[in-house]
Amino acid sequence: MPIGVFVLGISGAFFTTSMQSANNAEDLVPILGFVETEDDPCDIPVSCDTQGTQICRLFGASGPQAKAMDSPTTCERVVFRPQ
Fold first, then answer.
1. Which of 10, 54, 56, 59 is close enough to 66 for a disulfide, judged by CB 3.0 to 4.6 Å?
2. Integer CA distances (angstroms), 71 to 13, 41, 80, in order
3. Chain centroid to CA 23: how far?
4. Statement: residue 52 has pLDDT above 70
């Protein structure tokens, strides 16, 4: 009986850890950001994420900031660098 309880406890710990990892992976959702040009606020597409710590930019860590569409004609939503 004690061995069964031990195995059940270890299984629960692994299951809980894997569920937490799955939730963290769902937080990072790829999204298309756009860099503004003179003629168009949503012109140059850039691959970004919905969450993160660094702002998404055209050339990775440098370049103009990319923003996601928040309406059909404007790009003002802040997006983050892909991880």
1. 56
2. 44, 11, 19
3. 12
4. yes
Query: What's the pTM?
Result: 0.64
Reduce the secondary structure of the chain to three states and give it as a string.
CHHHHHHHHHHHHHHHHHHHHHHHHHHCCEEEEEECCCCCCCCEEEEEECCCCCECEEEECEEEEEEEECCCCCEEEECECCC
pLDDT in tens, 6-34: 445 555 555 555 445 544 555 668 999 99
- Encoded amino acid at 53, one letter: T
- Whole-angstrom Cα distance, residue 36 to residue 42? 5
Neighbour count for residue 57 (Cβ, 10 Å) = 17
In which region does residue 77 sit, left (phi positive, over 0), alpha (psi from -120 to 50) or beta (all else)?
A: beta
